[in-house]
Design a protein that fits this description.
Strand content: under 5%
Bound molecules: zinc ion
Largest sheet: none
Number of domains: 2
Low-confidence stretches: none
Number of strands: 0
Shape: globular
Order of helices and strands: HHHHHHHHH
Structural class: mainly alpha
Mean pLDDT: 93
Helix content: 55-70%
Distance between the termini: 42 Å
Radius of gyration: 20 Å
Length: 271
Amino acid sequence: MVTAVLDIWIPVLICLFGFAIGSFLNVCIYRIPRPDMSIHSPRRSFCPACNETIRPYDNIPVISYLLLRGKCRHCRASISILYPFVELATAGLCLGMYYRFGLTLELLLALVFVAVLVPIFVIDAQHYIIPNVLIVTGLILGVVVVCGIAYRDSDVWYLLVRLIGALAGGLALWLVAVIGSAILRRKAMGGGDIKLMALIGLFLGAWPELAMVIGFSALSGAIVGTILIVSGVKSRESPIPYGPFLAGAAVVVLLWGDSLWRLYLQSVGWH
Ligand SMILES: [Zn+2]
């Protein structure tokens, strides 16, 4: 009976936690790229159109957006659909990680990863930058939780693999950037992408996870890039940020990497 109740309530609590984190990530996404703002100031959320402080009951994730029909209560300016979308995506990712890892330290590591990848995804897509504050926060929290897991399992190798992953990730993308720039004769990749790949290496480990992230991000980037150019949204010369593809690929590998790698080994006849 107790387990049955927990079976329902833990996922519900994880979801609510995800919505709350998503709401905080919206604040990060809006404020971090703006030099005149910080996470702490102004203290309360405000409408970007009329500057009116948003009341707590108008700041409930997703629900307030639906009740207000996507408009500010004060000035009726449209609220970006991105806000409820980020909240829904964060809650969905938290729930997915719970079903993947259960109530473990590995879940905590995955949640930290989600909390930095979601704002990196949106900020890079909007502003073409990957803020250092997100990379550094992710690296510090990641190392702390990785050390915790290594300590729990008395497994120094686990910690070592993650550190090698971070070095290998940064190095691999730096090489891609150098070679890409030489071939394309223009900047092929930003420094932010290299730092992001080091972060991904810390959270996922080195092999085969990093290879899968590079493969999936290159493939999805090529497909989406082609669609954007063919549909006329982007010109051939306009830059397309690579961070969202790295972040998306990292989430896919974290959730399904094991099964995908096994499937790949079977398909090439390596049992
Ligand atoms: Zn307003």
